[in-house]
């Protein structure tokens, strides 16, 4: 009797797990993610898998994604190649405790080549909320920097787990937070389960998946600091290339909009604004100071270097003050260079998205 009861309970657990997932997308979710969030993400992936891309994709979309054509199959495959497991929001200290060194002195590709990471010159106002973050690329870079192959074990179900080895930015560990599910970001305000709202979250998914790409200087497609005058000036909230995360996210919004039969005028307008908001974060041209024989500029550049070196050691009000000072010095240098005609305008370009290393299954 006891054996039969145990078997029945076990069967119910398995049946419940099977019913929760109504798609075939090979992306796993941590058991720690709430049932509500998992159900929403399953619905989103179902929408993507079943979407009929009737309208032909723009050439720009295909170029940025590196695809010959865009349909539900190629879109799902694009995500699967870059995302392996999604986990719940995790405290950095708890995360660090669960990271293991799989192999020391690992032979990383492009060893010694550091990606370009720009330092923010301002601090976000208010209390932030986690939307989605690509931990896989960050942990790959951390391991590469220390020459250690890191691994992370995640419980994905009843007596099931996945161990990710960060042998490539394509390792694909994504963290989600409550911001990913906030109703105020919905395109359709009248129906929380509308496919338009799935499109919103899926565009973010594609954005974060792009961080699983790149090699050498372009590893992880890390964001650039938005220029002066931008809505997000001083924050790492822009891209200094034409095929980065914001390009991917915005173009997917555009493709979803073209193929959304249930989107009314109001919803379409919100999607268009979201598209424009993302494209506005793509920096098309960067102003750089050319070689300039000016004593004032040389002194300012020396002061700037000292301030930038100190940034990692600061926090709170001191950090904010230092960031403002750095922004002020950069503006002074740029003003002098413009006055003397010593400005080079560097056009952004498409960078190679091919990833370093390979995913170890």
* Uncertain regions spanning at least 5 consecutive residues: 1-19
What class do helices, strands and sheet pairing give? alpha+beta
Percent of residues in beta strands: 5-15%
Lateral strand order in the biggest sheet: 1-2-7-4
- Would you list the SSEs in sequence order as H and E? HEHHHEHEEHEEEHEEHHEHHE
The total beta strand count reads 11
- Largest beta sheet, briefly? 4 strands, mixed
Termini gap: 40 Å
- Given the structure, what is the number of helices? 11
Number of domains: 2
Mean pLDDT equals 91
Helix content: 40-55%
Principal-axis shape equals globular
Radius of gyration from CA coordinates: 23 Å
Core attributes:
single chain, 361 residues, alpha+beta, 2 domains, four-stranded mixed sheet, three-stranded antiparallel sheet, 43% helix, globular, disordered N terminus
What can you tell me about this protein's structure?
The chain is an alpha+beta fold and 361 residues long. Helix content is 43%, strand content 14%. It has eleven helices and eleven strands. The chain has helices at 2-20, 35-50, 59-65, 72-80, 92-98, 135-146, 195-210, 245-258, 265-279, 295-310, 316-339; strands at residues 28-29, 85-88, 99-104, 132-134, 148-157, 160-165, 173-176, 224-225, 236-238, 285-289, 343-347. The longest helix is centred in the C-terminal third of the chain and has 24 residues, at 316-339. The radius of gyration is 23 Å and the shape is globular. The two termini are 40 Å apart.
């Amino acid at each position: 009797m006891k054996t039969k009861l145990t078997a029945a309970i076990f069967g119910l657990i398995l049946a419940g797990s099977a019913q929760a997932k109504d798609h075939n997308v090979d992306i796993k979710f941590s058991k720690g993610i709430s049932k509500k969030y998992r159900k929403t993400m399953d619905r989103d992936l179902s929408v993507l898998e079943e979407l009929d891309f009737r309208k032909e994709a723009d050439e720009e979309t295909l170029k940025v994604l590196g695809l010959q054509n865009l349909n539900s199959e190629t879109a799902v495959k694009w995500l699967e190649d870059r995302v392996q497991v999604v986990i719940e929001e995790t405290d950095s200290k708890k995360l660090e405790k669960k990271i293991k060194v799989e192999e020391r002195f690992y032979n990383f590709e492009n060893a010694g080549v550091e990606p370009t990471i720009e330092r923010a010159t301002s601090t976000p106002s208010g209390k932030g909320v986690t939307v989605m973050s690509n931990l896989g690329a960050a942990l790959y870079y951390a391991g590469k920097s220390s020459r250690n192959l890191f691994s992370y074990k995640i419980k994905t179900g009843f007596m099931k787990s996945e161990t990710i080895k960060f042998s490539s930015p394509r390792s694909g560990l994504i963290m989600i937070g409550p911001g990913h599910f906030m109703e105020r970001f919905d395109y359709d305000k009248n129906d929380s389960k509308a496919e338009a709202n799935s499109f919103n979250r899926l565009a973010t998914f594609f954005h974060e998946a792009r961080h699983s790409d790149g090699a050498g200087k372009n590893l992880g497609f890390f964001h650039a600091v938005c220029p002066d005058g931008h809505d997000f000036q001083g924050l790492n909230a822009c891209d200094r290339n034409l095929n980065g995360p914001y390009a991917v996210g915005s173009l997917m919004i555009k493709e979803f909009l073209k193929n959304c039969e249930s989107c009314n005028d109001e919803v379409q307008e919100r999607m268009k604004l979201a598209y424009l908001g993302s494209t506005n974060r793509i920096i098309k041209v960067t102003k750089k100071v050319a070689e300039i024989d000016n004593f004032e500029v040389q002194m300012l550049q020396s002061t700037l270097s000292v301030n930038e070196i100190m940034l990692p050691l600061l926090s709170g009000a001191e950090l904010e003050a230092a960031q403002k000072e750095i922004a002020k010095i950069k503006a002074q240098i740029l003003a002098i260079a413009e006055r003397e005609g010593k400005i080079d305008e560097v056009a952004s370009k498409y960078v190679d998205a091919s990833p370093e290393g390979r995913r170890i299954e």
